[in-house]
Amino acid sequence: MARPLRIEYPGAYYHVTARGNERKAIFRDVLDRKKFLVILSSSIEQFVVRLHAYVLMDNHYHLLVETPAGELSRAIRYLNGVYTQYINRRYRRVGHLFQGRYKAILIDKDSYLIELSRYIHLNPWRVRGGSRDPLRYRWSSLSAYIGREKAPEWLETDEILGLFGQKRGKAQRGYGEFVREGMEKGIKTPWEEVRWQSLLGSSSFVEEIEDRFLRDREIGLTEMKGLRESRKRVKAERLVRVVCAYYKIKPEDLPKRSHEYTEAREVASYLMRRYGLMRLVEIGEQVALHYSTVGNVVRKVAGSKDRRLRAALNKIEAEIKNP
Length: 323
Prior knowledge:
By secondary structure, this protein is α+β, with helices and mostly antiparallel strands. It has 13 helices and 5 strands. It has a 5-stranded mixed sheet with strand order 2-3-1-4-5, sandwiched between helices. A hairpin with a 3-residue loop joins strand 2 (about 50-55) and strand 3 (about 60-65). Mean pLDDT is about 85; it is low at about 215-230.
């Protein structure tokens, strides 16, 4: 059987799962779970990932993630790799912790985002045959969604909760009712609708993905192995030059701390991440920022709804794409 397609692009949403080798436990105690969350938060920071939901079970985990910078593979490789190193050191073991490659299904957020968040949050209840209360399960993001705990900075709850109301308290109550309804009436397993082992969405979504990434391939879809979006790396020097020309400043001014250069520096950081495919540390060296600050900046620009900034980005990106 061909390996599942692995399509990556900025702004994509995925349901990610990884299971222990031979279905053995990947979490043995509280310390393991806490360490995993620390590494997960680091991966989110370094690779500009938005985490919308998660659950940690004994021998597997589920994540619902968004990739503003298109860095899914690097983020999950880092997560699984660093956690495996931790487990091997702590328990004096060697070898693989996880069973093969992680599984990532590209999803149509308009059709499946809410349902998949509930599916993930109900995992403790489903796995234990209804004997475990998911609303009180400690190792998932559900407590943050229903207001039982404060959401950590690395967990994004606003997008899904916003669909249940503008006032946070009301939205949290609405989401809690949504989860309880799933427990009472049952939920439909979405995996029967997955296409090509990797796509889950409406017909129009699947057609769009095929048009963007698959139509121009010479081989058939069923023969594809490990397909990824091909993106040409744009040199940092060119990105900086285009940004500075737009903002009418000199490239040597970009790292300066003056307020007048802030937006140009932030936009340049975002573009170096998206089009230069550069690591956060590398970008930091270009703009004189710590890599953690660069991560915040890239996430800020990627998610900005400011019309003036979006217009500026559109013009700069058009220049980059059409030299």
